[in-house]
Amino acid sequence: MRKINEIFYSLQGEGFHTGAPAVFVRFSGCNLRCGFCDTRHETGVEMSDEEILAAVQKYPCRTVILTGGEPGLWVDEALVDALHRIGKYVCIETNGTRELPSGIDWVTCSPKENAPVRLKRMDEVKVVYVGQDVSAYLSLPASHYFLQPCSCQNTAEVVAYILKHPQWRLSLQTHKLIHIQ
Question: Tell me, what's the pLDDT at 153?
Fold first, then answer.
């Protein structure tokens, strides 16, 4: 059983796949407690893999995004394999502090200050920028590096930073800007 906060269908609002339809499987619980997190960790329901798969299959898209909280606390190779068996492209959004099972198609690492990154593979790094030193994150083994304003509140500051440090790209929480889930 896995503790699920919610499963819903929407557009990816952040990072490399912005605008793509996806089924979001949001897990409850996290090993970190970031002040800007929008997950209600105290809520959730225990679901079996079969129940998760049935919920995911209700929607017409191929992409599934495992998010949280911290999905690395809950996701294992059995769930990833089961999602692949039903034809899904499996993405995960993680803080990177836990090793992940093999087979995940796209890894988004959103590292946090003072939390060690344990991932050996990631496709994108997406950092919520609140003025911290982000230069060390450019050494993480990813192909894409995004800075994201915190809840769309410090966008001008992020844009100014990126203009001075063009290794980064801007990620906006477009789902919040266009008022979708």
Answer: 87
